[in-house]
From TrEMBL:
Keywords: Kinase, Transferase
GO molecular function, one term: kinase activity
Entry keyword Kinase: yes
Name by which UniProt lists this protein: NBD/HSP70 family sugar kinase
Entry's family note: Belongs to the ROK (NagC/XylR) family.
InterPro entries referenced in this protein's UniProt entry, alphabetically: ATPase_NBD, ROK, WH-like_DNA-bd_sf, WH_DNA-bd_sf
């Protein structure tokens, strides 16, 4: 069954607003929902009745905890039935496709990965189809697919450009829909991760927060007024030109002293290889730095100072309530956290509020979960980037 065939679709605008409010902030009492959406009690009853009857919403048993303390007689809260629908989310890297299945609340209930041996779109679509088929055997009610990848996407369907894959103008959503028979959403992987944090993660309920990712590249996303700030530059790779130390190293990627030349995993490995002639894995470099090995300690220390400077710049100009640091490179903070903190303080006003920096240990399945959240937003609730 696809999302188009789901018994509770299509939702009216009012029903959709109620569903999104409960999904992103629930469980909520009826009085809270009415207050948040400026609805009368009668209107709310009219809107929630079909959502309950269809199995999308459920009345939480009496005595269940609510997110806020209230006085007076409590009303029976409403919550989303998380298991009512499942979604496949994928993250495409240079050599792998990472996949997950999530519930309507984005909880991961299955993981499955496959290598890609070619960047030919037909091959990647075959791998995505194989993974979706395997997921579908265990979860026959998959409602749709969300895909995140490094690069630019338009209309949440066409990959305009992906340097990692060497793609231009690839209609990925249409190709995967033809292969799987399911509706598909495609977007930049950082945008997908930001949406996951906004609806279900560290940014839930915040009006203004930023996400910074370090790993194969450098990613940045901003939420302001409770909505992700989308720009034509999404997916262009701002880290190549975000200068944090003009005297920093020159690497094959990015300008001298840019965030990507100092912080990305390939650049850190390149610096070690250029200095020692040894090709060392990122985790091993961090371990050597922790042990005090001079070259690894120097490279990791420079990266940590760059990270602190970058975090301070974001805090200075975006003024977020929180900065979420994610990606496969966040182990840097475990090894050189004090250096990061020193650099943040050195680049902030001495009387500025402390930066609320939350480091999120993550892997590629978290990125794939972001793809599933796109599917939840767009395919099911028709929310777009609302």
């Amino acid at each position: 069954m696809t999302a188009r065939a789901a018994s509770w679709l299509p939702l009216s605008p009012g029903e959709r607003a109620v569903a999104i409010e409960v999904l992103t902030h629930g469980p909520l009492s009826r009085s809270d929902i009415a207050r948040r959406l400026d609805l009368s009690a009668g209107s709310l009853t009219r809107l929630t009745k079909p959502l309950i009857e269809s199995g999308l919403l459920i009345e939480v048993p009496e005595g269940a905890a609510l997110p806020e303390v209230r006085q007076g007689r409590p009303s029976q809260p409403l919550d989303i039935v998380a298991e009512s629908r499942t979604f496949a989310g994928f993250k495409i890297t240079q050599d792998m496709v990472y996949g997950v299945v999530t519930t309507l609340k984005s909880d991961i209930v299955a993981r499955r990965d496959l290598p890609i041996t070619s960047h030919d779109p037909a091959h990647v679509v075959d791998v995505l189809g194989e993974l979706t088929g395997a997921f579908g055997r265990d979860f026959p009610g998959l409602a749709g697919i969300g895909i995140g990848l490094g690069g630019r996407a338009s209309d949440r369907s066409v990959v305009d450009e992906s340097a990692f894959l060497g793609w231009r103008d690839v209609p990925l959503a249409r190709l995967v829909e033809e292969r799987t028979g399911l509706p598909v959403v495609v977007d930049n992987d950082v945008a997908a991760l930001v949406e996951a944090e906004r609806w279900f993660g560290a940014g839930r309920g915040l009006e203004r927060f930023a996400v910074l990712t370090i790993g194969a590249g450098i990613g940045y996303g901003l939420v302001s007024g409770g909505k992700r700030v989308g720009t034509p530059e999404d997916g262009l790779g701002v880290g190549r030109f975000w200068i944090v130390n003009s005297s920093g190293p020159l690497t094959p990627d990015g300008e001298r002293g840019s965030a990507i030349s100092l912080l990305s995993i390939p650049s850190i490995r390149y610096q070690i290889r250029a200095a020692t002639g040894r090709d060392i894995a990122y985790d091993e470099i961090l371990a050597l730095a922790a042990e005090g090995e001079p070259m690894a300690a120097r490279v990791v220390g420079e990266a940590a100072r760059a990270l602190g400077t970058l975090v301070a710049q974001i805090a200075n100009f975006a003024i977020p309530q929180k900065i979420v640091l994610a990606g496969e490179g966040v182990g840097l903070v475990d090894v050189a956290g004090p250096v990061v903190e020193e650099a943040i303080l050195a680049n902030r006003h001495p009387h500025a509020e402390p930066v609320n920096l939350e480091t999120k240990v993550s892997d590629f399945h978290d990125w794939a979960r972001g793809g599933a959240v796109l599917a939840i937003q767009v395919l099911v609730l028709g929310a777009g980037a609302a």
